[in-house]
């Protein structure tokens, strides 16, 4: 048995069943600390790892928002930057925007030491464990791609019970308050509420792109991925990536009185940001094989049957800030 499995088994034997959120937090902390999970040799592939177009368009989104906000001193923040690919692609675009680099330093929120090291090879930034630790002195422009889906959830059955993990990692029902059935991501709501509080005082924006739903419907969206295949979330703790669909309506509620734009389907959002034109530009003058790869990436990111519909973009902004690109006013 691996170390984490032994540790969790001992904890359950001593203290009784664990709540699902505690299980998910322990598994994912170990999972991300120990490996680079991205890409063909890993467990899953994210949008920025599919194509440079994704990070470039996010870079354009950031620069456009900052210019229309009046080019204020601000801080660019990314939550859970993975390999740093999205931000490296974004910064290539932002480097062409006069004044941006000097006015807007980069802060990365990352708990995994291994991924921090990977990010440091590509990005000049300050690193923080939690959003609370970021200096609180200026507007924030916060980017979160496939971050909220990795945060721990609770699952309620609506009949006074919630999901727990017992001996031999078997599912158990723990007593819970309330009669609402469904999933709740308290950690995600707390992070959004904290960022919203800062936006209220200093201005700025939060962009969340993730797989999930616009209304609260999922009863069990917990998923484990290992080597690009679905795995059992309660077998081999720390060896697979645990995620759940993001409840965008809950994130919007956590933003309180701020302006919420979207969620809009990722395919629609990327089309509005000009992904077709960027793909055409990149295809121009390349080999047929490269051009085919770019066309395939475009389909993968935007087609409704691929990432285009399930993934969604939502922005939270201070009402005095402009409506961000890709969202109808
Ligand atoms: N945004 C990247 C990576 C997504 S995977 C991409 O799109 O490719 C999730 C990322 O969030 C990883 O970098 C992981 O280490 C980080 N992470 C997960 N839980 C976290 C937490 N509670 N606090 C900070 N970072 C976390």
Keyword list:
single chain; 329 residues; alpha/beta; Rossmann fold; eight-stranded mixed β-sheet; three-stranded antiparallel β-sheet; 13 helices; 16 strands; 40% helix; globular; binds S-adenosyl-L-homocysteine
The arrangement of helices and strands along the chain is HEHHHEHHEHEEEEEEHEEEEEHEHHHHE
Structural class from helices and strands?
Answer: alpha/beta
Helix amount: 25-40%
Largest sheet: 8 strands, mixed
The number of distinct β-strands equals 16
Number of domains: 1
The unique ligands bound to this protein are: S-adenosyl-L-homocysteine
Tell me, what's the shape? Answer: globular
| Number of helical regions | 13
Cα gyration radius (Å): 20 Å
CATH level-3 fold name:
Rossmann fold
What does this structure look like?
The protein is of the alpha/beta class and 329 residues long. It has 13 helices and 16 strands. The chain has one domain: 3-Layer(aba) Sandwich (Rossmann fold), CATH 3.40.50.12710. Strands 2, 3, 4, 5, 10, 14, 15 and 16 form an eight-stranded mixed sheet that branches. Strands 1-7-8 form a three-stranded antiparallel sheet. A three-stranded antiparallel sheet has the order 12-11-13. A hairpin with a 5-residue loop joins strand 7 and strand 8. Helix 4 packs across helix 5, helix 8 packs across helix 9 and helix 11 runs antiparallel to helix 12. The N and C termini lie far apart (54 Å).
